[in-house]
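User: Hey, my collaborator sent me this sequence without any context and asked if I could get a structure. I don't really work with proteins. Can you help?
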Amino acid sequence: MNVKSIITNSEVDTKHSALETNVNAVRAIAGAVQGTIGPKGLDTMLVDQFGDVVITNDGVTILNLMEVNHPAARMMINIAKAQQQEIGDGTTTATLMAGEMVTEGFNQVAQGVPVARVIEGLRKGVKAAICGIQEKSQVLKGLDDPLLHNIAMIAGREHEDIAQLVVKAAQIIGQEKLADSNLKLSDIIKAIEGAENEVFLGVLINKERINKQMPREISGEVKILVIDDALEPEEMDDEALATESGFARYLEIREEFKTNLLKIISLGVNVVLVDRGVDDLAEEILADAGLIVAQRVANKELRNAAEHTGARMIKRTGLKKSTEEIANFLGMATGVYENEKLEHIRVLGGRAKPMATVLVSASTQEIVGERERIAKDAASAIQAAIKGGIVPGGGSLELQVAREVDELKKDLRGMAAFGINCVTAALQRPFLQIVANAGFNPLEKLGDVTQAQVEQHKFSLGTNCDSGDVTDMLELGVVDPTLVKIYALKAAGEVAEAILRIDTIIRKKETAAQSDLKDDK
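Assistant: No problem. I've predicted the 3D structure and written it out in structure-token form, which is a compact way to encode the shape of the chain:
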């Protein structure tokens, strides 16, 4: 989809017309992802100029890949990115809520309500809604709670194999580690073409050993050195090498480098992981000594290996230290081996931080990305549920909270009460879209569920997307992480307020750099 800029050649676009252009762009963004939400949501196909295709159900992926020119549309996309970064799930919910808040806000302004009053009511409504959600949140009964699997299934779009994988990984890592804000469970997910579904205790290095003469596998007490640098001699410029003294210095540096390599061998190091390149001399000497060496390892993988094994990353200049000092930088593992079929190295059983890796199977290269996205969403949802608890899903809870927020209008003076409508409309939006995607009349189901919730005093009642019946979402096992709901609502409120506050759109004059760039084209 191409959301074209609505700003024309006129320099200034003012008052309601400025807000209207922004609202139209926001609606286009929300419309791009609304069909994907819920158990009956469908996929979106994105095609680039070369004909390459991405088919996905993931909201943030759609927003990241679609062509967007309008600044308000970019603000919406940024809110989805923020939701993804903070929670890892719920990007479509956040986008739909923000779109509904902006649309309803515009409707109020168009009827004569001052923007300041709309924003005042919006803020109060969002704050009350967040409190309402938190009050109804439930804590999971540990990592063996059956609802954990349900959360993974819902976020993982009903992929049973993926749900089982991420739950097992969570159980291996443990509840204490999952509550750590520095750990993202989604980071351990890897989808690889030709792999089998697997969870193992260890980390994956997406590189092969640099020399096939090196051993493919080492087990027992494996000593690991992690070099956050190149494993090469210090560089000298060509001018220095052209002089006699310079060449002598070159030979001296090479000899010193060889001495450093022998230190590594004397310490009994079995595996060397290198951030950059490895010199031919190092490859030869370390291969002869029976070490496994991998070069140009991604920095994140280096850090994971260091954390898992207890190694401290060292620069190449650090190899000038004594062997006793270098020994303090070494990590330990119970096994390291290369999977030649999948072209990666596994570091298993590190002595320090327990870490698991989830390998997700993918039959072809085309579906690798989508399988990985699905698994990452499931992992993020599980971690969010462990951190912040769970609430009934399917949009049921939001309907109850919407009625509670609507009660605030009785205590608000003046036109601020109209801003409350923005929040109640946004809270209803996920339910209405989920039901619509399932093929039912959303307004009819809204009436049925609302009546049932009021009569039975149950905020967990919602619509069964298979039968259309009013059903208790908790009994059905349809639950969502509380943090996903709270952050989506908070983020939607912030972006809606930012867009509603824009009164004038002014085209900036070109800078010299922009003018030069245009001339180059």
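In plain terms: The chain has two domains: 2-138+390-506, 199-362. You can pass these tokens on to your collaborator as they are.
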